[in-house]
């Protein structure tokens, strides 16, 4: 049996997370190779002097992430796809010094209850703590830091993000792979340029998908190919048939259905990318907000050479900050850095240092914990009230994020329900515009409801009004 080398620090927090981190590190360093059989949870628990539940939780987490496979009668093994990092290549050297398509139309004060999706609770933006972080940054920055930044981002923020994403999202992130972008949208549009330059003519997207990205993809000159999503996430079989060699996915919480990409699909997707020499663009949408189970690590952590992780603080803090990141294979990261250098010379420096300080001081973690509690209570209130007021509705995507996907009872006319809800003062989004034209006709009527902005009492009232809109929106 391989010596697993899983050092545990009993004073350093959750043991199952430490065990999972130890296994990931073992795979990445090449110490644990594909196919290696792991000890049973009982044996490992005994060796490590922890309860069996701790090991089971770690194994389940790693299985969901695609690092392990468990088969009846064959125990648990390192997954065939898990593979070590390549030794650094010359390209991996750290960079040298140096609806409406536009979402601003979202908040509409004419509606008493705004359930339009995609917006966090802006009234919870931690103004005082952000200000304190900005003060600290300004007070401590040397004058030289106020010059043009490295277009990939200031080193302090890239280092903080690399640490944060490794810890919280199980990403394979070191500062040389991190490029600061103005949000996921900016990361996507920059990557589209690179894909185009590499001869890609098509980008596969999930069907249904966020309507925001489509104009951006169209503007890049890359053709959009829609690939269906089912209850396991994106269909890799359909992706393989599509001919595209790059795909944009939302594995943590599919937008808009809320499906989490299953362990087997994660493995298939990585295998597909390796097969076609392709690239997976992982939009880490809603990953910060998961309520009923452990967050599944990002896909990028499974194959950092085939996956670019895109994330931002738009949902965790505020879209207005326009701060995000790409974690990319070193050669791609360098090209993104050059792209920023050629197009805009990088992101605003003071904001970058402020975010770095915000993460460094643990304030970001605390804010996320607070928001998770708040959003969970709101989700419970809205999901429960919808079930009570709209019998026959199927409420999906509840385990994470800040929106629900609600399939309306058969016979409902989606547009009619949206119109009646608006008349009653409830702003909601119908799901049909998010489906490809080929599938929109057969898609069940559904609503996408954001619940981040309102407290529980208002959500209960909104659900009651929606229930009435649905009763009147049944055809015939
Ligand atoms: C699925 C999805 N990903 C990403 C974004 C854009 O996020 P960012 O503000 O980070 O550019 C949006 C916008 O709402 C979205 O719908």
UniProtKB/TrEMBL annotation:
One of its GO terms (molecular function) is transaminase activity. Pfam families: Aminotran_1_2 (PF00155), GntR (PF00392). In the C-terminal section; belongs to the class-I pyridoxal-phosphate-dependent aminotransferase family. It comes from the Bacteria. Residues 87-103 have a biased composition (Pro residues). Residues 78-104 are annotated as: Disordered. Keywords: Aminotransferase, DNA-binding, Pyridoxal phosphate, Transcription, Transcription regulation, Transferase. This is PLP-dependent aminotransferase family protein. PANTHER family: HTH-TYPE TRANSCRIPTIONAL REGULATORY PROTEIN GABR (PTHR46577). Residues 13-81 form the HTH gntR-type domain.
């Amino acid at each position: 049996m391989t010596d697993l080398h899983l050092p545990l620090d009993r004073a350093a927090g959750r043991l199952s997370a430490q065990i999972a981190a130890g296994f990931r590190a073992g795979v990445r360093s090449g110490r644990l190779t594909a196919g290696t059989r792991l000890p049973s949870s009982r044996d490992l628990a005994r060796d490590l002097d922890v309860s069996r539940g701790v090991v089971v939780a770690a194994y389940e987490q790693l299985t969901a992430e695609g690092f392990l496979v468990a088969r009846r009668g064959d125990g648990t093994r390192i997954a065939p796809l898990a593979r070590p990092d390549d030794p650094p290549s010359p390209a991996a050297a750290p960079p040298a010094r140096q609806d409406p398509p536009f979402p601003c139309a979202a908040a509409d004060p004419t509606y008493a209850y705004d359930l339009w999706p995609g917006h966090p609770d802006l009234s919870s933006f931690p103004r005082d703590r952000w200000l304190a972080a900005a003060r600290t940054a300004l007070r401590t920055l040397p004058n030289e830091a106020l010059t043009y930044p490295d277009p990939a981002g200031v080193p302090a923020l890239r280092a903080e993000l690399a640490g944060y994403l490794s810890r919280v999202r199980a990403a394979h992130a070191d500062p040389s792979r991190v490029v600061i972008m103005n949000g996921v949208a900016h990361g996507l549009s920059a990557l589209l340029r690179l894909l185009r330059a590499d001869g890609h003519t098509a980008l596969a997207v999930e069907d249904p998908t966020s309507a925001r990205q489509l104009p951006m993809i169209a503007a890049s000159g890359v053709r959009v190919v829609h690939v269906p999503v089912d209850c396991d996430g994106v269909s890799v079989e359909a992706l393989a048939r599509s001919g595209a060699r790059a795909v944009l996915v939302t594995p943590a919480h599919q937008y808009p259905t809320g499906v989490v990409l299953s362990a087997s699909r994660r493995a298939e997707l990585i295998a597909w990318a390796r097969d076609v020499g392709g690239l997976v663009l992982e939009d880490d949408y809603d990953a910060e907000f998961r309520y009923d189970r452990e967050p599944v690590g990002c896909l990028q952590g499974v194959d950092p050479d085939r996956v670019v992780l895109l994330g931002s603080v738009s949902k965790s803090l505020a879209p207005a900050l326009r701060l995000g990141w790409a974690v990319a294979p070193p050669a791609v990261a360098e090209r993104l850095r050059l792209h920023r250098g050629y197009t805009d010379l990088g992101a605003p420096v003071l904001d970058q240092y402020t975010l770095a300080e915000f993460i460094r001081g643990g304030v970001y973690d605390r804010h996320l914990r607070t928001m998770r509690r708040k959003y969970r209570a709101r989700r419970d209130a809205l999901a429960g009230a919808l079930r009570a007021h709209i019998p026959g509705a199927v409420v999906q995507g509840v385990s994470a994020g800040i929106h629900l996907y609600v399939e309306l009872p058969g016979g409902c006319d989606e547009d009619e329900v949206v119109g009646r809800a608006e008349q009653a003062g409830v702003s909601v989004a119908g799901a049909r515009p998010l489906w490809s034209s080929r599938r929109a006709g057969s898609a069940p009527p559904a609503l996408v409801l954001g619940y981040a902005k309102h407290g529980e009492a208002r959500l209960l009232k909104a659900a009651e009004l929606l229930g009435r809109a649905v009763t009147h929106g049944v055809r015939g």
